[in-house]
What we know:
This protein has 2 domains: 5-161, Rossmann fold; 175-266, Orthogonal Bundle (ProC C-terminal domain-like fold). The protein has 12 helices and 8 strands. The chain is an alpha/beta fold. Helix content is 55%, strand content 13%. The longest helix is centred in the C-terminal third of the chain and has 22 residues, at 197-218. β1 (5-8), α1 and β2 (30-33) form a beta-alpha-beta unit. The radius of gyration is 21 Å and the shape is elongated.
Amino acid sequence: MDTxxxxxxxxxxxxxxxxxAVRKLGSSCIQVCGKDPxxxxxxxxxxxxxxxTAASIAAGCxxxxxxxxxxxxxxxxxxxxxxxxxxxxxxxxxxMAAGLSISQIAEMVGGKYPTIRxxxxxxxxxxxxxxxxxxxPVITAEEKAEFLDLMSCSGKLEELPEKLIDAGSALxxxxxxxxxxxxxxLADGAVACGLARDxxxxxALQTLLGSAKLALEDGRHPEALKDAVCSPGGSxxxxxxxxxxxxxxALCMKAxxxxxxxxxxxxxxx
Length: 270
């Protein structure tokens, strides 16, 4: 298969997926472009791939990843639309702009091209991502299988109805930031108890990693796993009570809801 892949926009998310694509295909198949030539060149050197223009990626790549911000998408698609309209071969647009639907992308680019909407997260850079995706109706089963194979080095992929992509993204797309905040807070607490900063951070991160792996493999509900750690009259239940006093779970829910509302607002480009 033609595995030429171009990234228009090479920020945090685009860069994470580009690293995954390099692991899968090698660097020779990957091209990148971005607004800042210096930063783009640095990213390309780090990845071992080539820099390109948006027009050249649009003209020749099998996969065209659109990694630009929602507010910049109309301008970028207007630039490459004439190039795409001249192509006689089959290509796939892969959009990762928060809040923008496949139909909105089609309207902006002036054509109903084969399009896959994805919402990845930053752990894709290390092969542990959670990428949500939805395919437009013209994507074939073979193309979907090819896409899943291409993305396999990024981590897990979950197909959702497009109407649920924004809700899922508020969790898996924004969630890493919330997890990093939690990890830092745990480390801060340990530092306050006398632990060295580097040790506290290492303990916090490994605790989160191990807990997530256990929850995925054990099969019990997270609440049951929490109960298993909380011995009667012990230190863990005392800490859990402190979290409940601060409305910890309600704040986590509120964070996801706030991220979801903002994502919907970003999709309102008119």
